[in-house]
Amino acid sequence: MGSVFSGIRPILVQGGNVKFMTGTALLFLVLGLGLIGWIVGRARASGFVRKAKGGPRGTVNSLPYYHGWFVAICAVVPALLFMVIWQSLSPSLVTNMVLSAPIAAELPQDTFARAAILSEARAIAQGFQATAFQDMSDKLVPLYKGALSYYKWLGVAATLLLLFAGGAFAFTRLKPDFRARGKVERVIMFGLLVASLIAIITTLGIFASLIFESWRFFSMVSPFEFLFGTDWNPKSVVTPGADNGYGAIPLFWGTIFIGAIIAMVVAIPLGLMSAIFLTQYASSTVRKWMKPILEILAGVPTVVYGYFAALTVAPAVRDFAVMLGVSNAASDNALAAGIVMGVMIIPLVSSMSDDSIAAVPNAMRDGSLAMGATKSETIKQVLLPAALPGVVGGILLAVSRAIGETMIVVMAAGYTANLTANPFDTITTITVQIVALLTGDQDFGSPHTLAAFALGLALFITTFFLNYVALRVVKKYREAYE
Amino acid sequence: MNKAVIDPTPTDWNGHIMQKRIASRYAAERRFKAMGFMAVALSTLFLAFLLFTMLGQGLRGFQRTEIAVEFDFPALTSGATAASVTGPNADAALNSMDIPGLVELAVGQQYAGLGDSLLTSAAAANVRQMLIDNPELVTSKQTLWLPADSRLDVAFKRKGEPAAEKTVAALSEKDALRTGFNWTFLTGADATDPSAVGIWAAFKGSLMTMAITLLLAFPVGVLAALYLEEYAPKNRLTDMIEVSINNLAAVPSIIFGLLGLAVFLTIFGMPRSSALVGGLTLALMTMPVIVIAGRNAVKSVPPSIREAALGIGASPVQVVFHHVLPLALPGILTGTIIGMARALGETAPLLMIGMRAFIPAAPEGFTDAATALPVQIYLWSDEVNQGFVEKTSAAIIVLLIFLLGMNALAIYLRNRFETRW
User: Fold this and answer.
1) In terms of CA atoms, which chain A residue is nearest residue B276?
2) Residues B287, B321: one domain?
3) Is B190 part of any domain?
4) Are residue B402 and residue B337 in the same domain, yes or no?
5) Domain with CATH 1.10.3720.10 in chain A
6) How many domains does chain B have?
7) What InterPro entries does the record point to (chain B) (predicted)?
8) pLDDT in tens, B304-329
């Protein structure tokens, strides 16, 4: 198989059914034993309480179930940590054991050929592959089988040993005056902190993986060509210094044209006017019914919008263009994708405008009305100027949402890079090209795959910047009226 | 009568100029209001149009065209008995009957000259299932209604190719066509023949992906929300966590797909296009939504609850887990359901991690190659065959029913359990 991860295939892939199943079984065993530890710890602490009943009050420091939790945590947590570490460690241990056998000396010196044979032998040993395509692999299969089961049972034994050791240690520490609650609460606080750190780890993970793959890409294709080139026709084999068809300007333009221009021309007037009508004019009954209906627009999955755009809107737009006399109207035109994307964004613009208009102090509106201004004059000349920062923040968020939107453009816009301002022409965007580049069976290190990450980096930086500015603007504006 | 003093300033409200000006101002007011109304109406109309288009096309996807085929079983099977197709040897007996051959023979005899592909490729499997369900059939002459080929299906329901239209006309004359409910669509998997496709495999893939997502995103999201609202000290680290969460909530979903591809597939080597990786990727995407909803819910619990609990001797951890969390749970659940609905409709990140493969059977485990309902919709929308149009819309109807159901549940929970303090 020549798919993305042909070279590298550790842990779970090889695990597949066989190994994953034993992993799951072991996990349940560990958790079950932890439950037993909880019951035993609590029973022992209940014994303390019963004894203390006759004696002086307050000799038992913590409630019985805290003792139970203490035993369970001491038993389960180290065992689980060990399982995770063992999962990532054991594949290389298995390979080392196989390579240390005398027969391994016959393996070819070439790194790739070697890795191919080893991975094939491993796949057969685990029952993923029925027959070997390389003769050498067959000889290694029994070795792999032996090594795999050896390390598997070693891992299971070590996990259980660690579990019982932890449980026994915790059990011996249980005493009436043992501060089990303090210890358990410290673990809980630590768990809370770790859960919050996952957000940072994810952000860093996104940033690091995008930067790393983009750096690999830019070592093949010059960043200058990528950022300023106008020819997008990516070649799968690149020659340094030459024009490789990785000029992303048409993609940047397409993204801006569809997401920031056409979609906004639809979304800003409709969203803003809907918010104004629903907050200022509509009766409370109308408002109560229409707000959820508008929110449904935001809840419709993008793949449905994409299908609707491609199947219904795009042909209609093309017919309209032909009626206007535009001869080269494409069936996958930019206008259809942009219009549908704009409709998808309406609820976002509407709710952000709603919030910022509601935040304008009532005194300003009342003052304007008292001077004799009509409602619309008050809205246009008092409320909107006062709410402008919030509205602009909402629009920036909407733009960020639109340029990152994928399915609508993948299904309704085209795949041809085109530097044109004709909305009836076909045009492509960053997200469409990311999907296009990652479709098919390239190797992970190919310039196509890496280019997708470079485009992803450009998208990530742009949306990050837009979101950051938008949130700052909205926050500043809220503070101004507080 | 005093000499009339004409006031030069425009405060004479009954004067001609002022009346005109007021009239034009009121006209502007009405125009503005009408514009607002138009905006709401247009948005609603668009939604209605979208839903009606999907319903109009999709309802046909739940139906199939069936052709009456007469089977003279005693003659065709040379005297098989009901007993021979039941019991432990039924499989072998049915295999030796060569049912595909029987079907071809029966159709050939009855509808000679109407072309050779009247029935869908799954028709033989249907006959086999009918015989297993009711072995008595094999002892007599029977008329069975079997699903028609996709071309005829399209031609019977709306307009198809001229050749197919002609065949349909000929069949209708013999009264050999009817419309039945397409059970295969609810129980089957992806196929190359649109009359044999079903959404069960994709739906099961979606369910498994959602299970992983919920299992990971819910606890992490709730714990993070509790930490940030209740315990986090004001420092650089907390600021960084807040910025990360706000940013993650707005990162395009396709970026999460790239992360899943680079980290889960390439570095950790997890199985490509599996529900496990899909669930992990969507969990990272859903977690910030749950954190933000959770923080709002925790924030709305009044401080007096905390103070009362602290006052009678609860520790800070007990205050949060015994009092604040249960009171905030309805709000957290509402946010979770909305986040899960978003994840259920998500397509782009799943495409990145390879869930776009052709999956002809439902996945058995979390590491099996799977696909998800929105991805299946995308794949079918790409098919050239006319028969897939109604299947795509029908799958969209199923997806929308689930999404709207989840959102309705969230609204119900909010109204039922939300406490106004």
Assistant:
1) A12
2) yes
3) no
4) yes
5) 249-480
6) 3
7) DUF3333, MetI-like, MetI-like_sf, Phosphate_PstA
8) 999 999 999 899 999 999 999 999 99
Residue B137 falls within a domain, yes or no? yes
Q: Which residues of B190-209 are buried (b: 16+ CB within 10 A; e: fewer)?
A: bbeebbbbbbebbbbbbebb
* B226 beta partners: none
Residue A22 confidence (pLDDT): 67
In degrees, rounded to 5, the angle at the alpha carbon of residue A452 between the alpha carbons of residues A220 and A404 is: 145
CATH number at residue B318: 1.10.3720.10
B187 in a structural domain: no
Closest approach of A36 to chain B, Cα-based (Å): 23
Contact A10, A88 (CB under 8 A): yes
* Residue A228 burial (C-beta neighbours within 10 Å; 0-12, 13-18, 19+): exposed
Coil, helix or strand at residue A232: strand
Cross-chain Cβ contact A304/B42 below 8 Å: no
pLDDT in tens, B184-242: 888 888 888 888 888 999 999 999 999 999 999 999 999 999 999 999 888 899 988 98
- Interchain CB contacts (distance < 8 Å): A and B: 280
The H or E element containing residue B120 is none
ipTM of the prediction: 0.88
Task: Answer yes or no: are the C-beta atoms of A199 and B224 closer than 8 Å.
Answer: yes
Identity of the residue numbered B359: I
Contact A273 B291 (CB under 8 A): no
Specify whether B379 is located in the same domain as B273. Answer: yes
CATH number of A249-480: 1.10.3720.10
Q: Residues of B with CB below 8 A from A304's CB?
A: 50, 54, 345, 377, 396, 399-400
Q: Are residues B34 and B85 in the same domain?
A: no
Based on the domain organization, do B3 and B103 belong to the same domain?
Answer: no
* Cα separations in angstroms, A371 against A218, A378, B31, B210, B284: 63, 10, 21, 57, 53
User: B138-168 in b/e burial notation, b at 16+ Cβ within 10 A?
Assistant: bbeebebbbbbbbbbbbbbbeebeeebbebb
Pairing label, strands B177-181, B63-72: antiparallel
Phi, psi of B119 (to 5 degrees): -105, 160
Residues B176 and B252 in one domain: no
Rounded CA gap, B36 and B34, in Å?
Answer: 5
Owner of token pair 């714990």: B223
Domain extent at residue B316: 200-417
User: In the block, which residue shows the tokens 């669509």?
Assistant: B185
Which stretches in chain B have pLDDT values below 50?
Answer: none
